[in-house]
Amino acid sequence: MYLTRRVRLQLVFFAVITLLAGGVMGFTYLGLPNMLFGLGHYRVTIDLPVSGGLYKNAVVTYRGTEVGRVENVTLTPTGVAAVLSLTSGVEVPADLDAQIHSQTAIGEQYVELVPRNGNGPALRDGDVVPADRTTVPPDINALLNATNTGLQSIPHDNLKTVIDEAYTAVGGLGPQLARLVKGTTRLAADARTNLDAITTVVDQTKPLLDTQIDTSDSIQTWAANVADVTRQLQIHDGAVKGVLQHGPGALDETRQLLDRLRPTLPVLLSNLVSIADVAVVYNANLEQLIVLFPRGIEMIQASELANRNNKPPYRGTNLSFNLNVNLPPPCVTGYLPPQQKRPPSDVDYPDRPAGDMYCRVPQDSSLDVRGARNTPCVTRPGKRAPTVKMCESDENYVPLNDGYNWKGDPNATLSGQSVPQPPPGTPGSTAPPPAAPPIALAEYDPASGTYIGPDGQQYTQTNLAPGGQPPTWQDMLVPPKGQ
User: Fold this and answer.
1) Run of H or E including 74
2) pLDDT tens digits, one per residue of 29-74
3) Cβ(44)–Cβ(122) under 8 Å?
4) Which of 127, 327, 448, 474 has the most C-beta neighbours closer than 10 Å?
5) Which pLDDT tens digit goes with each residue over 144-192?
6) Is there a contact between 413 and 401 (Cβ–Cβ < 8 Å)?
7) How many Cβ atoms from other residues are within 10 Å of residue 291's Cβ?
């Protein structure tokens, strides 16, 4: 057969391409350089007590990534030596454990390199991992033999029943059972890792269990109460549904209310905080008030009992008007001196004098027995003082005097407080008297008794001229003409 030059060149070209592709496949995919010359890999030997089903060309992993394969498995006087061929580009710490695992139930073992820490040197060619740092899975043959022995000890009919019932129970639940087995395996591995902590918990569980035994009655009571609550919720299921249905609307209304009250609510709450602090301090007093309040209402109602059946206007309260006037007399000790007191007719409002003014006679005096000096101290039981500051301190109440009159400096009380001065011109005042008002002049007509006032109005005053007195006493009772 005659081949043209073009055809011969094409055949040569395809032959070269085939040789190159085969060479690349042999050197890369089949790993011929590593198999023939050991290029790109280094060898590490692990000593095993038994092979554990490990075979040649098994996968070697590091942190879940394949880093090599098992090159050879040979017997040694003490066990088995497995030579691992690891990729040179991956550095594996020398301080590690070599574990043999199985990917499936039928075998397919692989070697997992688990580093103990990330520090220290890496594995080098010729390194050996001792047997005390290797683990192998349990012998599957022994497990199967023990299982077979156990199954043979069970009667055939009963075993068939168990298998049928097991199929009925777990039939079609393969994925769920697989997740359960994997989770149980992970749980067992974690438990082995934390074995010391679990052992400590087991050893120290006895006191806790003893307390459960000692409080068994309380636990039973609690369980009964929970059951009762659950039963009540079941009975009132409609009400609970109503709360769940209308609750969002109520919460929305509450939110809108709070939005409307936002400008004033913080101020109100801050004021309530102060009131709450006072209420906490005077908690016992408030409780006593709540206790006595019904008794007070009872006494008021008892005062109307005598006239309960009377008709108006004879129905009412029986009161006694036996007044002990000025018994005892009012207390004046501790207040402003008489010459510095403001008359009731004054309508101005000066600043309040600094300090505290109260009846400063002895606490056992009959004057003002319910005054500030006998206020009980809440935080100091048994102590009485007029101010909170004195209650909280170690200072005791000291009376000003035991008489009825004010004693001491006429310009201040015993506490040294400033005292407002009396109006100018009054006795005891140190201010200069006010200047006299200017005198108004008016032309007076003695004949008619009339004159023009500063306001431009005409007035009549007949008794200003000599001999102008009213002729009779009746004229003194009648206003002058023109007024």
Assistant:
1) strand 65-76
2) 555 555 555 567 888 999 988 888 888 888 999 888 888 889 889 9
3) no
4) 127
5) 788 888 878 888 888 788 888 888 888 888 888 889 889 998 888 888 8
6) no
7) 9
Please name the residues in contact with 355: beta carbons below 8 A apart, sequence gap of 6 or more: 413, 415, 416, 417
In which region does residue 63 sit, left (phi positive, over 0), alpha (psi from -120 to 50) or beta (all else)?
A: left
State the first-to-last Cα distance of the chain, in angstroms, to the nearest integer.
Answer: 166
For the whole model, what pTM was predicted?
0.31
Per the structure block, which two tokens stand in for 439? 């005198």
The per-residue pLDDT for 374 is 93
* Helix, strand, coil shares, percent, the chain, to 5: 40, 15, 45
Question: 136 near 48, Cβ under 8 Å?
Answer: yes
**Is residue 93 exposed (0-12), middle (13-18) or buried (19+ Cβ within 10 Å)?**
middle
Q: Which residue has the tokens 């749980």?
A: 187
Structural contact between residues 27 and 77, judged by C-beta atoms closer than 8 angstroms: no
Of 53, 77, 128, 56, the closest CA to residue 98 belongs to 128
Cα 332–chain centre separation:
54
Identify the top-confidence range among 97-101, 413-417, 435-439. 97-101
Is the Cβ–Cβ distance between 383 and 363 less than 8 Å? no
Q: 59 phi and psi, to 5 degrees? A: -75, 145
Give me 7's structure tokens: 């055809």
Distance CA 352, CA 417 (A): 11
Are residues 46 and 68 in contact, defined by beta-carbon separation less than 8 angstroms? no
